[in-house]
Amino acid sequence: MTEPCIICVAITGSLPTRKDNPAVPISVSEQIESTHAAFEAGASIAHCHVRDDEGKPTSDPARFARLKEGIEAHCPGMIVQLSTGGRSGAGQARGGMLSLRPDMASLSVGSNNFPTRIYENPPDLVDWLAAEMVKYDVKPEIEVFDLSHIFKAHEMFGAGQISATPYVQFVMGVKNAMPADRDVFDYYVHTVNRLFPGAPWCAAGIGRNQIVLNDWAISSGGHARTGLEDNVRLDRDHLAPSNAALVARTVGICEKYGRPVATPEQARAILGLRPAA
After folding, report:
1. 1-5, 161-165, 261-265: which has the highest mean pLDDT?
2. What is the CATH number of the domain that holds 27?
3. 54: in domain
4. What confidence score (pLDDT) does residue 277 get?
């Protein structure tokens, strides 16, 4: 396999705390510093959440703006992907930062169970978020927690609600949702290739499944997500010292399978994104 592998680093999320791992970046300045180190290690996409002064998740557009500006200044060409996830807000507040015109944003097209709650993505909100992404020229990354979400993305693409070929990410290993199952993973890949021939795809594993999904995705020709949002450990006995360390581990898997690591410019070409500002 010779296609470069895009590495996305999910730098902080909304759940890991300093008690989980002291390396988790909380403030905007910490997130910028951590992202820069991950960028230097080989990441070309930054998946971003923001938190308030108490470390709680928020959808505050002003904080997103500061984070986006900092990443663009310190990580030239890096793809900024903002999260519209449900832990950071409710209703249309989840998309309040899309007017900042990030390169990408996450888009969950259906609901599913999380460990202690329902991750609600009602059809009217999904339609609104998709319309905002079209309006501001933001490429969605479709977060797939269930097979039906791939079919929903195909329906939305056919209806013009998604303006370019979707970038689909399989999320596996969330408690009460889809486990990290190789047969299911292979069928996900088959389904994306059937519905979106030639489209790039990615995979994310939660907790101890992060390295498993990294291996499956990279060896199967897909792209990979890593970072402290999804996993705070290198292995059972050792906390990850940084986002950069998790990126470096992913780079090692690319080397194992002979996949070059995508530069930001290559990642933008693969995903069909506009040139960096």
Report:
1. 261-265
2. 3.20.20.70
3. yes
4. 80
Structural domain boundaries, residue 265: 7-271
Residue 202 near residue 217 (C-beta atoms within 8 A): yes
**pLDDT per position as a tens digit, 255-272:** 999 999 999 999 999 999
| DSSP state letters, the chain | --SPBPEEEE---SS--TTT-TT---SHHHHHHHHHHHHHHT--EEEE-EE-TTS-EE--HHHHHHHHHHHHHHSTTPEEEE---GGG-SGGGGGTTGGG--SEEEEE-S-EE-SSSEE---HHHHHHHHHHHHHTT-EEEEEESSHHHHHHHHHHHHTTSS-S--EEEEEE--TTS----HHHHHHHHHHHHHHSTT--EEEEE-TTHHHHHHHHHHHTT-EEEESTTT--EEETTEE-S-HHHHHHHHHHHHHHTTPPBPPHHHHHHHHTPPPP-
Give mean pLDDT, residues 129-145: 98
- Which backbone phi and psi does 252 adopt, to 5 degrees? -60, -35
In a domain, 1, yes or no: no
Q: What angle do CA 6, 252, 42 make, to 5 degrees?
A: 40
Neighbours of 159 (CB within 10 A): 10
